[in-house]
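2024-03-11 09:14:02 DEBUG pipeline.ingest accepted 1 chain
2024-03-11 09:14:02 DEBUG pipeline.ingest length=192
2024-03-11 09:14:03 DEBUG pipeline.predict start
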Amino acid sequence: KRKLEKAEEEIAQLLLLPSHFRVVFTSCGSEANNLFIKGYGGIKKKIASLGLEHSSVLETAQFLSQEGGDYLALSDCNVGGRLDLSCMKKISESNVKLLCLSHVNNELGSLNDPLQIGKVAKADAPHAKLFFDGVQALGKVPINQEAWNYISGYSISAHKINGPKGVGALIYDSRLLLTPMIHGGKQQSGIR
């Protein structure tokens, strides 16, 4: 328990996390993506993405859509693998509650800047929470500390920074209600 708490503290310090963010360890980045998208988005909130994200993001959103949720693929908002910020009004008008993006795309290497996207989202689509798959960015692309004012969830994986395979984490704003995927355990604040 002490080692886990120390690891949480180290991650929080390295990523300059605000005190209301929580680190939840998972088995990988894919599990972290699933945990946030299902746990926050679920079938009750409209979810959107560019359609270029890692399969663990896309297939989770598609699964929720098959279960009665609403998924919006923003393929017309793709500019070189990045979100065209002029589409934020479309996101708002479509009543999107969760926008899922790759911080760094795993196929194209394109970068979605959380700070820039967050500022535009706050102005043009304030009801859309932002989730970033940060697996490819970890250790390579720093996050501006101010960006955490706009990010609701962020996933990482240890193997991308020479850590062991089978270790990932979800970093999320603990002020949000997140439903666990596994019920009955009280570990990690009852989230996993």
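2024-03-11 09:14:41 DEBUG pipeline.report The longest strand covers residues 151-157.
2024-03-11 09:14:41 DEBUG pipeline.predict end
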